[in-house]
Amino acid sequence: MGEGLLDEVAQAEAEMIAAAATAVERHDDSQAYFDAVIAADQKVEPRDWMPDDYRKGLIRQIAQHAHSEIIGMQPEGNWITRAPSLKRKAILMAKVQDEAGHGLYLYAAAETLGVTREELVDALISGRQKYSSIFNYPTLSWADVGAIGWLVDGAAIVNQVPLCRCSYGPYARAMIRICKEESFHQRQGYEILHTLSHGTEAQHRMAQESVDRWWYPSLAMFGPPDTESTHSAASMAWKIKRHSNDELRQRFVDMCVPQAEVLGLTLPDPDLRWNAERGQHDFTQPDFGELMRVVKGDGPCNAQRMDHRRRAHADGAWVRDAAAAYAAKREKQ
Ligand code: BYC
Questions:
Q1: Kind and range of the H or E element at 327?
Q2: 3-state secondary structure of 42
Q3: Most exposed residue of 14, 74, 78, 256, measured as fewest CB within 10 angstroms of its CB?
Q4: Across the chain, where does the E strand assignment appear?
């Protein structure tokens, strides 16, 4: 973690302690209790009092996370009809269904903070809330299904395992199950790439070309560098995030290097090398300008992803109407 961010976290923590002292002075137990829960590493639960900014920050992050799972079904779903065998097709279908499940757990966790599912879906469809940059890149070959599993799910695990210890109970509990399933996903992708890499020359080339395209977008998934991260300081003081963007990015690189060796594939960074002094790898950072362009809507597939999502939502209107009519009928009985 950079020194600047450390200072910011320390300052945010000092402000929390000062706020707790003021709350105690004013006999305002809510803030003091909340701060004590955070300091003791306990969980905040939906009915507990919480600061507005904590609630808003969580809704923002959990909603973006849920939207990412739902949009993330598209690039993978693109290969269901063209998976190279029935077994691969069945596995991929199960994986895409898992992503829908993750979206549902996360929307349910966000709903405990007082927003409705309709509001959240509307925020995605209207473009007011974001989803992960990574899903705005196209899946051009079957090897991309492997690279998404290995790199994208791998990055997701590195980012999300610490979220199992997030201070907000419903989010932390949702993350435990999600992470277990993500581990399966990561191994599924790794196995696809391993098979291709050790197959024919053309298959090996396909695997390498795919890793070349997905490496830097996967590094960018961790977000802007610590010096430019707007939410990290508050989020870490509240123990929503446990590690900074740069820390997790480094952890991911260190994890991938030995795995790439076993795969027999090269990570596309000529400056990637072990730094014995730091005990970590030196590596080339992703293009953060590109990350911000993609986040703002100017990635290769943003328009396509949103069109598809809006169409699917409109096509599902009759299902929602029927479910609502059925629920109303049951209530009258
Ligand atoms: N893409 O202050 P920062 C998955 C935004 S699901 C888009 O550092 P924070 C998977 C950020 O929102 C993957 N936007 O933010 C699913 C903020 O903008 P706003 C998703 C990004 O929250 C299916 C601004 O940049 N995972 O892996 O402290 C199949 C400044 O950033 C991105 C999660 O959502 C990005 N990459 O840290 C397979 C995990 N990066 O909101 C796999 C939970 C940054 O102020 N989320 N931004 O307008 C997190 O851990 C954190 O929210 C992030 C960002 C690390 C993503």
A1: helix 317-332
A2: coil
A3: 14
A4: 273-275, 280-282
169 burial class (0-12, 13-18, 19+ CB within 10 angstroms)? middle
User: How far apart are the CA of 5 and the centre of ligand 1, in A?
Assistant: 17
Q: How far apart are CA 252 and CA 267, in angstroms?
A: 13
- What number does the ligand 1 atom closest to the CA of 185 have? 38
Tell me 265's DSSP state: -
Taking alpha carbons only, the member of 299, 296, 265, 301 closest to residue 78 is 301
Both tokens of residue 153?
């799910």
CB 65 near ligand 1, within 6 Å: yes
82 CA from centroid of ligand 1 (Å)? 30
Does residue 282 sit in helix, strand or coil?
strand
The tokens for 26 are: 């004013």
pTM of the full structure: 0.91
225 lines ligand 1 (CB under 6 A): no
Q: Which atom of ligand 1 is nearest to the CA of 60?
A: 41
Phi, psi (deg, nearest 5) at residue 211: -60, -40
- Identify which of 209, 64, 240 has the alpha carbon closest to the alpha carbon of residue 232: 240
Q: Rounded to the nearest whole angstrom, what is the distance from the C-alpha of residue 222 to the centroid of ligand 1?
A: 7
Taking the CA of residue 241 as reference, the ligand 1 atom at the shortest distance is 50
**What spacing in Å lies between the alpha carbon of 60 and ligand 1's midpoint?**
10
List C-alpha distances in Å: 133 to 119, 196, 224: 22, 26, 11
Summarised one tens digit per residue, pLDDT across range 277-286 is 999 999 999 9
Token pair listed for 234? 């508050």
Token code pair at residue 130: 């974001």
Q: What is the pLDDT of residues 177-233, one digit of tens each?
A: 999 999 999 999 999 999 999 999 999 999 999 999 999 999 999 999 999 999 999
Distance 184 CA to ligand 1 centre (A): 22
Secondary structure tally for the chain: helices H, strands E: 15, 2
Instruction: Evaluate whether 322 touches 330 at the Cβ level (below 8 Å).
Output: no
